[in-house]
Amino acid sequence: KDVQKEREPHLYLSKEEVKEKIQSYNSSVTDKLKMTLNANGIYTGFIKVQMELCRPITVQSSQSQGRCAHSNNETAFYLPDGCVNTLHISSTNTVREVIEALLKKFFVADNPAKFALYKRCHKEDQVYTCKLSDREHPLYLRLVAGPRTEMLSFVLREHETGEVMWEAFSIPELQNFLRILDKEENEQLQILKKRYAAYRDKLEEALGGVWKPG
Fold first, then answer.
1. Which phi and psi (to 5°) does residue 148 adopt?
2. What is the DSSP string of 7-47?
3. What CATH code is assigned to 15-60+72-161?
4. Which GO biological-process labels does this protein carry (predicted)?
5. Which of 30-39, 101-110, 170-179 has the lowest average pLDDT?
6. Domain locations in the chain?
7. Which residues face 99 on adjacent strands?
8. What is the C-alpha to C-alpha distance for residues 163 and 107, in angstroms, rounded to an integer?
9. Which end of the chain has less Cβ packing within 10 Å, N or C?
10. Are 131 and 25 in contact (CB under 8 A)?
């Protein structure tokens, strides 16, 4: 029920209510990232988005860093865990526009349709994560929730496995993914081999035998 309630259309505030909300918001800000109300009723401000990407992203090779696999002028690599980016946006910017702006800041060449923006809410010692629709406005959500990220935070993720638009990936991208998966599979296989070799060693010792690897 809570998740369904989060998906319901938001009731937007009047201009006077927005003004009051912004004044209250700015009085509670501790990181100087305040909101500004313009004469036309549109307001601007900042949101922080945590990047929780499990699959590699594709960027121009000149911008790449970290573990990667090359393909022509592009590079596929993993973003560091817990990477947080701050965006300055307006109340008119939609979720889709925020995703596109994030990818642009990281020089990501991937199709924006591969990604989704989530909001993470804390209520009564419970954490709820809900995927936002492309037409929602993140700054409005930030204003209503207040500046505390403990109450509301934004997270960029790939679409769930069952929702992945594989047709949005190019052949070089898919080939890079396969190469990276093969490497990770081999690494995990070596770890398992070492673990079972250690078990075998201890069993041999328990049986009173002497076993040493060749």
1. -75, 120
2. HSPP-PPPHHHHHHHHHHHHHH-SSS---EE-TTS-EEEEE
3. 3.10.20.90
4. signal transduction
5. 170-179
6. 15-60+72-161, 167-209
7. none
8. 24
9. C
10. no
